[in-house]
Design a protein that fits this description.
Blueprint: H1 7-11, E1 24-27, E2 33-36, H2 59-66, H3 71-83
Antiparallel strand pairs: 1-2
Length: 104
């Protein structure tokens, strides 16, 4: 089983995202109005300094290796969210049939 300080980030507890700020109407020089998303996103990404070898790359086998059986469905819904930025539905309510297939 995977252990270490990153475990909570992978498997929980998950907290809800902060509510998005309401869109702001901006009046530009051409007298057109457009919606601007005013959400502030704070994030940090730290990549491994060297690749991890001897780990499965197939999502199904990686899920077994990490003992996270929901990993493939989490990945599918993540990919769905990346291509459908305007959805107003919880990702857990998205049918897996609507999500993109994972690479093998």
């Amino acid at each position: 089983m995977y252990t270490g300080p990153a475990v909570p980030a992978f498997i929980g507890p998950h907290t809800a995202l902060p509510p998005a700020a309401p869109p702001v109407l901006v009046d530009d020089e051409d007298n057109n109005t457009e919606l601007i998303d005013e959400r502030e996103i704070l994030g940090e990404v730290k990549l491994a300094q060297m690749p991890v070898h001897n780990h499965p790359q197939d999502p199904q086998f990686l899920a077994q290796y990490l003992q996270i059986p929901t990993l493939p469905s989490l990945l599918c819904r993540f990919l769905y969210a990346q291509t459908h930025l305007d959805i107003d539905v919880e990702l857990t309510n998205i049918p897996l049939d609507d999500c993109p297939d994972l690479p093998h």
